[in-house]
Amino acid sequence: MGKRGEPLELRDAHFPGRAQIDAYGNGGFRFADMSHRGSLMCVPSGVYGWSPTCFEEITDEALDQILQEADGIEVLLIGCGDELKPFPEARKGPFREKGIMVDSMSTGAAVRTYNVMLGEDRAVAAVFIAVDYT
Questions:
Q1: Cβ density class 47-70: b for 16+ within 10 Å, e for less
Q2: Are 40 and 132 in contact (CB under 8 A)?
Q3: Bridge partners, residue 14, by sequence
Q4: 56-61: long-range contacts (C-beta < 8 A, 24 or more apart)?
Q5: What is the pLDDT of residues 89-107, one digit of tens each?
Q6: Calpha distance 7→134 (Å, rounded)
Q7: Distance (Å, rounded) from C-alpha 93 to C-alpha 99?
Q8: Does the structural domain 12-128 have CATH classification 2.70.70.10?
Q9: Minimal CA–CA distance to 113: which of 85, 79, 90?
Q10: Distance from C-alpha of 99 to C-alpha of 57, rounded to nearest angstrom
Q11: Residues 56-70 pLDDT 10s
Q12: Confidence class for position 4, pLDDT limits 50, 70, 90
């Protein structure tokens, strides 16, 4: 229950802004003095909780937000989890049409690359599969 016995309102996780990822592992991420358990999507409109838990769950629907915000994105980094898994060339077409380069790598490498690109004020978006190591 929330305040004064009111039902607790659950919302989708969302941080309205761009933020570097301070830490990852143990099934989640830390950023902007907050922590989030589970996977993340970082786009120009903010940082969102993201439902995929493994590379195989990264569907076209799961990446739709990237295409909706394509005007502010030149690079999409895909953090695949514990290891690199190539994003299929056949699925890159819609991103190329919008001028977005797609690069997949392990989540750790994607976080580091995202932070560097964000620090350079580059037009970058990222999706990160949560990992259990620290």
A1: bbbbebeebeebeeeebebbeebb
A2: no
A3: 48
A4: 58/87, 58/127, 58/129, 60/91, 60/94
A5: 999 999 999 999 999 999 9
A6: 35
A7: 10
A8: no
A9: 79
A10: 24
A11: 999 999 999 999 999
A12: low
pTM over 0.85: yes
- Structural domain spans, the chain: 12-128
The predicted-structure confidence for 23-40, as pLDDT tens digits, reads as follows 999 999 999 998 999 999
- Whether the CA torsion 20, 22, 23, 29 is positive or negative: it is negative
SS3 track for 66-117: HHHCHHHCCEEEEECCCCCCCCCHHHCHHHHHCCCEEEEECHHHHHHHHHHH
Asked if residues 82 and 107 have their Cβ atoms less than 8 Å apart, the reply is: yes
